[in-house]
Known about the structure:
With about 625 residues, the chain is α+β, with helices and mostly antiparallel strands. The protein is built from 15 helices and 29 strands. The chain binds adenosine monophosphate. Adenosine monophosphate binds near residues 212 and 362.
Amino acid sequence: MAKIKIDINSGKIVKSNIVVGIDLGTTNSLVAWINPQTNKAEVIVDEWGALLPSVILIKPNADPVVGILAKESLLDAPERTIFSVKRLLGRSFQEITSAQQFLGYNIVEDEIDSMLRIEIDKKLYNAVELSAMILRALKHKAEKVLGQEVFQAVISVPAYFNDSQRQATRDAGKLAGLDVLRIINEPTAASLSYGLGLDRSVSQTILVYDLGGGTFDISILQIEDGVFEVLATQGDTRLGGDDIDYSIMAFWQETHPALANCDQPGDIQALRLLAETAKIFLSNNTNLIFTEWFEFSNTSTVQPQGIESATKEKIELSLNYGDLVNAAQVLVLKTQACIVAALRDASLKPSDIQALVLVGGSSRYPEISRVLSAQFPHLIINNSLNPDEVVALGAAIEADVLAGNRKDILLLDITPLGLGIETAGGLMDLLIPRNTKLPCRVRREYSTSVDGQINLQIAVFQGERAMVKENRKLGEFILKGIPAMPAGFPKIEVIFSVNADGVLTVYASELRSGVSQNIEIKPQYGLSDEALEKMLLDGFANAQSDMQVRGLQETINEAQQLIYSVNRFIAKNGDMLSPIQLVDTTQRIDALKRLLNIGSNKDALLQGITALNNHTRPFAENLMNIAISSALKGKEI
Length: 637
Ligand code: AMP
């Protein structure tokens, strides 16, 4: 479908058809496009270079400053210089308070929606607005360099971004005046840049290892004949180079007790930047020692009058490669565990991987290549791609595909976590398992469990556990106005549809009456990454016990349903039974109820169910005979 754009200020038709690819990074952001002259993806470079530091300076009564100039204000004006916005995107105040000590700016909780806001000069900003400032700066950068207006973009996000973080990114794009054609997973984008250079006739399984400033992502992809199929994704949205910086700071604080009194926001930022400088220096010079003087305000100095005032203190900080390795050890171990999990998800052995693609600034830390060489001894680490640029370039390639300029590539992405609804007894009924290809659509039929039920609550969950209480609730709604029917008679169709961005829509309808409803899965900015990661790891760890829990719960459901049916039979057809049969049946029902109260013995419950079923079967057969004979009586044969 052709689109015409009109500039609402000038009333003129805009002729631009440029669709850019944007890597909205925690530390740096980039914008790329397909140069029509070369037909190649290129990062857009202005006088400041290709990377735009994802840092924003908010000045009173002035437009925000984004980029290198803003980064320079980290030390002088830490309270109005915002960095790592991506870590705040789609998060609640509660989730971020622990990180507050490293941020120079003030984070507050909005009373209305309990979302976090950043407070500067008594004005509140949310993470979507701030991300939009970075996106707007990228849009302007592209427009300035290309000499054309840019309205459309593909924006990359970590594969492990949840629904609300994806929505928040999309909202930020909109706010920046961009029509976001697609949210693409960063490792998938990276694989596009890598795979484009491959011989089409060669099929390859690749592992993309993306370690940035604040996030870690892994994807395993199969590239064959222009089709990029994601086989598995893993990651951690709160793991990255920043963590190494914080560990180095902690190491210095341990070894230099005076640093306990370094608590001025500007000083903390200076220490953080020094830690990062040390890390990058040692990454490039593994056999040297990093040494630097550090000056800060010691706020603990108590004057004779008892008035606290700060005095300047200068200490020498140093770090060697061994210290760096210690500081980064936990991070490296976590990334290795993710690789193992990704391979397991894809049912592959390390030897099945034919290429490794390294992405993200932190993949330059030498231990990463060393550890990967040990995990994949048959491979030579591919350093030919620029790890800073590869995601933006891939996003530009996808943008070109969506703009209709390329027909030789097909991208098949997947869901990172299972999606399902709550059924009787709090069980998770999984409609879309994790690692399902996107876009996808699944329909399943349900019914009511009680006679005359006219409303049905449908609660949607995301996660890997058997019981919904251990998964994440995405939203719920009530399908109202179902005509009163006997239990089990309504046919309620539930459809889950996940689009190519990974965003879910749920539809429900009662097929006999046509009553239907769509659910808006409102983004709930409330799931911490620990929670997400925990959900996944718990899912693996508890698979066995979950099977037992599910088995027991299904038996409990069956017993309850049987008691309900037999009671209903007695209420309607009790006069068919002799007084002795009636007492006997009631006693058997009570016996099953007692077993239910005791709870956890599945075998005993199954026995009770079988006993009650065997006992009542002749009644049902008898009832059937009566119904048939009365039906026959009315008919002439
Ligand atoms: P990205 O989010 O991909 O821009 O990556 C930024 C992260 O990469 C930051 O934590 C940087 O400190 C880190 N980084 C950049 N260059 C290096 C390097 N040579 N060695 C180690 N870490 C690096």
